[in-house]
Amino acid sequence: MSRALPDRLMIVPFSKPFDATGDRAVIIPGSKSLTNRALLLAALADGETTLRGVLFSDDTERMLEGLASLGFQVGIDREKCIVNVKGCNGQMPKRSEQDVELFLGNAGTATRFMTAAMTLASENTSAIITGIPRMLERPIGELVEPLRQLGAKIEYLGEEGYPPIRVHGLGKGIMRGGDLVMKPTVSSQYLSALLQIGPYLHEGLTMIFDGPVTSLPYVKMTVELMRQFGAKIDTTDDWSIISVKPGGYQGNTKDIEPDASNASYAMGMAAATQDAIVEIKHLSENSLQGDAAFAKELAKMGADVQYLDDAIIVRGTGKLKGIDADFNAIPDMVQTIAVVALFAKGETTIRDVGNLRIKETDRMAALKNELTKLGATVKIVGDDITIIPPDQNKLKHPNGQPITESNPAVIETYDDHRMAMSFAIAGTKQVGVVIDDPACVNKTFPTYFEQLSQLNTAAQRQ
Ligand SMILES: O=C(O)C1=C[C@@H](OP(=O)(O)O)[C@@H](O)[C@H](O)C1
Ligand SMILES: C=C(OP(=O)(O)O)C(=O)O
Fold first, then answer.
1. Which family does it belong to (predicted)?
2. How many whole angstroms from 387 Cα to the centroid of ligand 1?
3. What is the ipTM of this complex?
4. Residue list for the binding site for phosphoenolpyruvate
5. 0.95 exceeded by pTM
6. Cβ atoms of residues 348 and 277 within 8 Å
7. Is the distance from the beta carbon of residue 331 to the nearest atom of ligand 1 less than 6 Å?
8. Do residues 224 and 295 share a domain?
9. Mind listing the pLDDT tens digit for each residue in 274-320?
10. Does residue 436 share a domain with residue 335?
C-alpha cells in the first residue's frame, strides 16, 4: 500500500544515471485496464475465477466495491495481489433494494463497463451509476444510445448525456442483441463495454464500425481477454466488424500483466538521461496492452530500446530528437512523451489526441499550462499538440529565471495521476520541480513515488 504523501512533493533529481536492470529491474503493478476487464468478465462467467497480479488502486477498488454492492462474492488477498470471484453465469445476484448505488470515483473503465453490465441485472434491480464531480463531466451518451437501441432502460438523473444515470436490469438474454452500426465515438470504452455483454445477449452482438475507432488497441485488448474467458468472436482483418457469438464466459485462472501505461514513466526517465538504463519486467511486444508499444516512440526519438521475450529495456543515449507522431492508439502516453520532449532537440508534435479533453482533466489544456511553467512553448491546433522545448533543453521559469529549490516550478496536477507521474520525469532532471497533490497517483499507481525513490537509490549505488 502507498505511504501517506505530502500536499506537495519536490522531486529529487538523479545524482547519476541509474541502472535498474537485472535484480534491480522494475516491476510495475498490474494493469488497470486488464484488472477492471477481468473482474467484470469473472463476475459474469460461469464458475470461479482466480486473478493474480491484480492492481489495487482507486480505479480497481471502485470496481471491486461495485461488484460487492451488487452482491457478488469476491475474495481479496491484497498482500498476494490475488482476487477470487464467484461468477454469476450472466445472471447478476438479486438485490432487495431497488436502486443499488454504484459510486465509481473517476474510473472511466468501471463507469462505462458497469453501465452496460447492469442491463443484465435481474428485473426489479436498478443501479445508480455515479462518481466524483469530474466523472459527471465525462460523456456517456455514446454508450447509452446504442444500449437503448438494444432495448436497455437507462435514465439520466442529471445532465442529458452524462452520469449520474439509472440503469434498469432486464435479465440475462432479454436484450436480443444483433447488429449495431457504430459511428466514431470519443472513447473506445463504450465499445469495450458493449462487447463485454455481447456473449449474454440472445443473438450475440455484431458491431459494424462506420468510420475510424479511437484508441483501437483497447478494443483489441477487450476482444482478446474475452476470448481468454471462452467467448467466441470473429473480426474482420481490418477490425471494421466484430461479431460476438452468444454463449457466455467460463471462469478460469489468469495472470494480469503489469500496467504498460504506468511503465512509461520509468522508461521516459531512462530515455531522458544519457546512460540511464531501465529494464521493465514482464512486458513485451506480445502484451495485450497497446501502450507496450510506447518504447518504440522513445526509440524513434533516439533512445536505445530492446524488446525481449519477457522484458523491455530502455537506455538513454543523450541524443533525443523531437518526433511527429500519431498517438490516437495510445492516448495515455501523450503526457509521458510531452515531458520527455522537453529534453529532445527540436519540436515534437503529437497528433489526433482530441479525446484527451474528456479524460481525468482536459489534458490538452493541462499540458499547455504546466509545460509552459518549465519554459516550453506549446501550441494546440485542433486535435494536435506541439511542444517546443526551452533553449538547449534548459528548464526555466516562463520569465527566464532559473528553476531552483528556493524558486521552484510548482506543477499542478488537476487530480490527474498522469500529470503527476509524467511531470516527475522533469523533476529527475532538474532541481526545483514540485508536484502538487502527488497523492492523485492513487488512481492507478499508489506506489509510484516509492518506486521512484528506488530508482534514485539505484542511481546513488552506481
Ligand atoms: O479501455 C480502457 O481500459 C482504456 C481506454 C482508453 O480510454 P479511451 O478509449 O477513452 O481513449 C484509456 O485512455 C484509458 O485509460 C483506459
Ligand atoms: C484516461 C484514463 O482513465 P479512465 O479509465 O478513467 O478513462 C487514464 O488512466 O489515463
1. Belongs to the EPSP synthase family.
2. 23
3. 0.99
4. 32, 108, 138, 189, 363, 418, 443
5. yes
6. no
7. yes
8. no
9. 999 999 999 999 999 999 999 999 999 999 999 999 999 999 999 99
10. yes
